[in-house]
Design brief:
The structure holds two protein chains of two kinds. By secondary structure, chain A is α/β, with parallel strands linked by helices. Chain A contains 18 helices and twelve strands. In chain A, 43% of the residues lie in helices and 14% in strands. In chain A, helix 9 packs across helix 10 and helix 17 runs antiparallel to helix 18. The two termini of chain B are 60 Å apart. A five-stranded antiparallel β-sheet of chain B has the order 2-1-5-4-3. A five-stranded mixed β-sheet of chain B has the order 11-13-14-16-15. A four-stranded antiparallel β-sheet of chain B has the order 7-6-9-8. Chain B is built from 15 helices and 16 strands. In chain B, a hairpin with a 3-residue loop joins strand 15 and strand 16. Classes of the chains: A alpha/beta, B alpha+beta. The interface between A and B is large, with 37 and 42 residues.
Chain lengths: 425, 581
């Protein structure tokens, strides 16, 4: 009897060991199943925030989101960086009624139907304090008297110049109130083709939005104020000459094309010390400083006898109409445009007067021209005047590209107007 | 421990003495180990077979999955290039040129084309470019054409005539800002535009897909299976190979798959040792378990058998003690099993022997006492007989015939009485002596009594203890009869191999109280002669034939007494030696 028992014990012990040896592998393969996070998601509210930024700017935004999370326990901000595919992904999100709750926004004419009107939120909200914002910023986010976005950052456009290159050629630094003639002269003087050094860089592919500042400064515009006519505006001699000027500078060699096929970007050439002047918004300023360039900032030149006009590029935050957490989204937007968050964001110009005053940004010579240009930005951009502007813009961009590659501005713009007018009907 | 081992060694190998324990141990081990080992071997072979076949299938599936994944990449890329190619074949695109477009219309065409290229981009697409002969290209502006020769297969491709050329895996480092070191891994496809019709003849379509996931899959596969993965194109160019060095052998397990799109062959080689790795783990485990079980079985067997044999040994020791005369030895009874009953019966046997020996001792002592007593009473028979013969002769001379008769009979009785050379005598002799005794009584009392004898002649030759009847007859005359008046009946019969002698009289009988005391040895001594004859006779039977024999007395006061004695038949030996043992 005992003999039998011991046998049974031994055989079972052995088969157990064999079994465990066999199942060991399975466990390691299946054992790492992730715990289902079903309960957690019902307790923690998740807010999706879409941005087009990348790199350092994105990192700052993630930091702001984290701060908001610590201030609001039980909240999770999911930062979705769409980068280049921003428009595509946003449109897809709206189409699938699954958009992010909060998103960066600038193209209100295109998207406003999918956005939550914010008047009821913004009016009378003391935390927001609408009056502290630079006047005019709200206009960009307003369609037919409805506010669809809260300005989060903006920039105007200025001319950066490399002080060292000016010093080397013993040319005095440009000053506010200079003209395009001064600009072209300086460009010529600073150009040294032997050193592959140029006075100015012209973008091979321009955003026509940015060109509006020059057109307005020359007393014209891309579209009539009522948004119904382009003939005589887009192809006016003032518009044509403003654009032609850049084509001519490339042609006569005082400027170099940048950012095209096989070309370095203008910022990189400027950082490399190969162009003396570069026209842009606030964005590259930090990188210029980091690259060790002794950079100066000056407001845009004027066309003789005409006032300088600026154009504002604004980014705002909007709430999707399909969002399920609108109140929380509003809290997040308010935090995002609060003094605390604005101070964290160095890639944008502060939207609040109080912050600018506190940081004395309007006293800083590197920042002051941006605010001067802001005061000069009272024209309405074309995309706000006509909902079909995107289509027209496609033709106009091609025309501008043609001009900087040596085309005749007047002829090309005439042709563009002819082909674009069908979108106005 | 050493001591124990030595002991075991001695026990196991000493040929002369094999204890039951050793035998038990061996039997036990054989009974345990054979099924254990066969079970272990069986389970090993079964599980190894299952595991090997499963692992083989797993490997095949994994390679098939790699093939699927890779071909899905390749298909997608191939389709994209075909879309671009067919777009270029459209006569409307004939204006797309080799040079930088400058006119408004050319730029519009370029933009349209690039919109298509952008639309063709998918999540994994890292770049779609159409590189013209002049070096101008269509696509995103981030390409540096001069760096394209960094692609390992790019220069080779220029000598190739095929339209589609798969560039394989390489780091994408031909961007404007890329350096040679960085760049994520991509899978590239270049298609030469050779069609005599359509735009951009002589250009190359370059499409690159992010291959990090795919390469990660390859790595997972390599880590999982430890196999050596190699992808070749049909020309024998190595597209991908596991980084670790590998010597292929005939014995390797090989999983093969060919991708349909471009004929790449995926080959995963696994050294046989790795393939059988899991089964060899099972084998070693099985062996370890088997050895452990054997050891355990050995220990258990040792413990059990020693526990078992300890009892036998104890019994053996007890027997030894008994052999040396220690009759009080008792073994301990542990359990109610065969050994337990053996112990019990051993104990019974010893106590039986003990009581038997006591009995023998007692009977021996009685015998000695009797002999002593005999010595005590011994009289020189010659003197007695001579004297009696002289008296007899004197009586004849004086004419006293009665006295001479009595003396004659007395002499005969005494002769029988005093002949102590034989303890057992034939019944016939005893009966003859009784006749003499009765004659004496007849002379004494006259013809007052009757004696009836019932005995077959053949029974007369059987033996009976000497002087058994005479005291009983004396008792009858002295206690039973008054003045010799009465009837005595003696019968001898045989029952089976026993003899049954019945002596009955019609005398006074014995009272019930006296009858009770008759066989108690102490009481009779005190009472003097009465009952001594009965007890003596009884003792004689018991001494000669055993305790179960003897005589019984039935008596009713005033009516008579019946004495019955029973003893086994025994004939006189031929050589005359009838001494009992």
């Amino acid at each position: 009897m005992k003999k039998k028992i011991s046998l049974v014990v031994l055989t079972t012990a052995m088969s157990m060991m064999l079994l465990t040896a066999c199942t060991g592998n399975n466990e390691s393969a299946n054992g790492t199943t992730q715990p289902v996070n079903g309960n957690g998601s019902t307790k923690v509210k998740t807010l999706r925030f879409a941005t087009w930024d990348t790199g350092d700017a994105l990192k700052i935004e993630q930091d702001i989101a984290k701060k908001f999370e610590t201030n609001h326990p039980g909240t999770k901000i999911q930062v979705e960086a769409y980068a280049d595919g921003f428009d595509q992904k946003l449109a897809a999100g709206f189409g699938a009624t699954n958009p992010p709750d909060v998103m960066y926004m600038w193209d209100f004419p295109t998207y406003h139907q999918s956005l939550e009107p914010l008047n009821s939120y913004a009016d009378g909200d003391k935390d927001l304090n609408k009056d502290d914002f630079y006047s005019g910023l709200f206009n960009y986010a307003t369609i037919e008297n409805s506010l669809y976005g809260i300005p989060a950052g903006f920039t105007t456009r200025v001319v950066y110049y490399n002080k060292k290159m000016f010093d080397d050629s013993k040319i005095p630094y440009p000053k506010d109130g200079w003209t395009w003639d001064d600009f072209q002269d300086i460009s010529k003087q600073l150009t040294d083709k032997a050193k592959k050094q140029y006075g100015f860089g012209v973008r091979a592919e321009n955003d026509t939005y940015d060109l509006q500042g020059f057109v307005w400064s020359n007393g014209s515009s891309l579209i009539s104020d009522d948004g119904k006519t382009i003939n005589g505006y887009m192809n006016s001699s003032e518009t044509a000459s403003a654009i032609q000027m850049f084509g001519d500078m490339v042609k006569n060699g005082s400027a170099v094309l940048a950012g095209g096929k096989g070309q370095q970007s203008g910022e990189d050439i400027f950082k490399g010390g190969k162009i003396a002047m570069w026209e842009s918004g606030i964005w590259p300023l930090e990188s210029f400083k980091q690259a060790g360039i002794d950079v100066g900032v000056v407001e845009m030149p004027a066309f003789p006898g005409k006032p300088v006009k600026g154009v504002v590029a604004e980014s705002a935050l909007s709430i999707a109409k399909d969002s399920k957490n609108k109140d929380l989204a509003w809290e997040f937007i308010k935090y995002y445009v609060s003094n605390e968050a604005i101070k964290m964001r160095v890639a944008d110009l502060p939207v609040r007067v109080s912050v600018v005053k506190e940081l004395k940004k309007d006293q800083d010579p590197l920042y002051k021209p941006f605010y001067t240009m802001l005061q000069r930005s009272d024209n309405t951009p074309a995309f706000l005047l006509n909902t079909k502007w995107n289509e027209i813009n496609r033709q106009l961009s091609a025309a501008v590209e043609s001009v900087v590659h040596g085309g005749n501005a007047q002829d090309t713009l005439n042709q563009t107007v002819k082909e674009s007018e069908r979108y106005l009907k | 421990m050493n001591h124990l081992l030595k002991q075991i060694y001695n026990r196991l190998l000493s040929g002369s003495y094999r204890s039951i324990r050793t035998k038990l141990l061996f039997c036990f081990l054989i009974v345990t180990i054979i099924p254990l080992l066969s079970l272990g071997a069986l389970s090993y072979y079964q599980s190894a077979k299952v595991i090997n076949s499963q692992f083989g299938k797993y490997g095949e599936n994994a390679v098939a999955q790699l093939e699927q994944q890779t071909s899905s990449y390749l298909n997608r890329m191939s389709q994209t290039t075909e879309t671009i190619y067919s777009y270029l074949l459209d006569p409307a695109r004939v204006d797309l040129g080799d040079q930088i477009p400058t006119s408004y219309k050319d730029i519009m065409d370029k933009n349209d084309f690039e919109v298509l290229l952008k639309a063709l981009k998918q999540d994994r697409t890292m770049g779609i470019y159409i590189i013209t002969r002049s070096g101008y290209y269509y696509g995103e502006n981030n390409l540096d054409v001069s760096k394209l020769s960094l692609i390992p297969a790019w220069p080779v491709m220029k000598n190739s005539y095929s339209e589609k050329y798969w560039l394989g895996f390489y780091p994408q480092n031909h961007g404007m800002e890329d350096t040679i070191e960085n760049g994520i891994s991509v899978l590239g496809l270049a298609v030469s535009v050779n069609n005599p019709y359509g735009a951009l003849r002589g250009s190359k379509i370059l499409i690159e897909e992010n291959a990090e996931d795919l390469l990660h899959m390859f790595q997972l596969f390599e880590n999982d299976t430890k196999a050596h993965l190699k992808i070749d194109d049909p020309q024998g160019r190595v597209i991908y190979e596991t980084a670790a060095t590998f010597n292929s052998k005939e014995s390797d397990i090989v999983w093969n798959k060919t991708i349909e799109v471009n004929g790449w062959s995926i080959e995963a080689r696994l050294p046989a040792t790795s393939f059988y790795h899991s089964s060899s783990i099972i084998r070693s485990n099985t062996i370890i378990v088997a050895i452990a079980s054997c050891l355990l079985a050995f220990v258990l067997a040792y413990l059990f058998s020693s526990r078992f044999t300890v009892r036998i040994r104890r019994l053996k020791d007890a027997m030894q003690k008994v052999r040396f005369g220690k009759l009080h030895t008792m073994t301990q009874v542990d359990a109610k099993d065969e050994l337990g009953s053996l112990d019990t019966s051993f104990n019974n046997m010893v106590s039986g022997i003990q009581s038997l020996i006591g009995e023998v001792e007692r009977s021996e002592r009685l015998k000695k006492e009797a002999e002593l007593r005999a010595f005590h009473y011994q009289i020189n028979p010659h003197l007695l007989f001579n004297t009696l013969n002289s008296i007899q002769w004197k009586a004849r001379l004086q004419g006293a015939e009665d006295i001479r008769q009595m003396l004659y009979h007395l002499t005969m009785v005494l002769e029988g009485n005093l002949d102590i050379s034989q303890e057992l005598i034939p019944i016939e002799r005893e009966l003859r002596m009784m006749e003499h005794f009765l004659k004496i009584q007849e002379i004494r009392y006259g013809p007052m009594f009757e004696f009836e004898l019932e005995c077959d002649e053949q029974l007369k030759c059987y033996l009976i203890p000497r002087m058994t009847l005479q005291p009983l007859f004396e008792n009858i005359f002295f206690h039973g009869f008054e003045d010799g008046k009465g009837v005595i009946h003696l019968s001898v019969r045989e029952t089976g191999n026993h003899l049954l002698l019945t002596l009955s009289d019609n005398g006074a009988g014995i009272s019930a109280e006296k009858l009770k005391l008759l066989f108690l040895p102490n009481m009779t001594k005190r009472k003097g002669r009465g009952g001594l004859g009965v007890q003596n006779a009884d003792q004689k039977f018991k001494l000669h034939f055993g305790l179960q024999y003897g005589l019984t007395v039935q008596s009713i006061q005033g009516e008579g007494t019946r004495i019955i004695m029973e003893w086994p038949k025994k004939e006189e030996n031929l050589n005359g030696n009838n001494k009992d043992d």
